[in-house]
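Hello forum,

I keep getting stuck at the same step: I have a sequence, I want structure tokens, and every attempt I make locally crashes halfway through. Rather than fight my setup again tonight, could one of you with a working pipeline run this one for me? It's a single chain of 158 residues.
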Amino acid sequence: MKIDLIVRGICCLRPQVPGLSENIRVLSIVGRFLEQSRIYYFENAGEPAVYLASADWMPRNFIRRVELAFPIEEPVLRDEIIKEVLPRFLHDQVKARELQADGSYVRLRAAEGKPATQAQLHFRERSRKQARTLAEAQKGGERVRLLPITTARAKERS
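Reply #2:
Ran it on my machine without issues. Output:
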């Protein structure tokens, strides 16, 4: 099976070692912001499962704190994470470095003639655009209400 790991810092795992970890790819992305997503995406017999978690799974976080991971059960949200969020990070060519089998890192670059993409910049600009749209609607006198995310199940009940 193919495994992609997106880590913020160092990683002790050696990817791409023949006979051991040749199906594992490790990307390190350290950008302007220190926050990092805790997204776990699995697929079993074609059924996707996505979990979000509160912290990295290191012993210090399990011993001294309470951490949690929870499933994203709403198909629309799950699919957005799978099709929009994760690919943005996997295809970052500005801040991403790929860990090599020898422990060195290689900076990823866009193909010649193609624009470089940066995940954090994309999501920051997307958020700013949504904020501007909201502010413009409010200036225009529209009554703007922020609505909670509703799931398909909640819609069925109402």
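The longest helix spans residues 119-139. If your local run keeps crashing, start a new thread with the error log.
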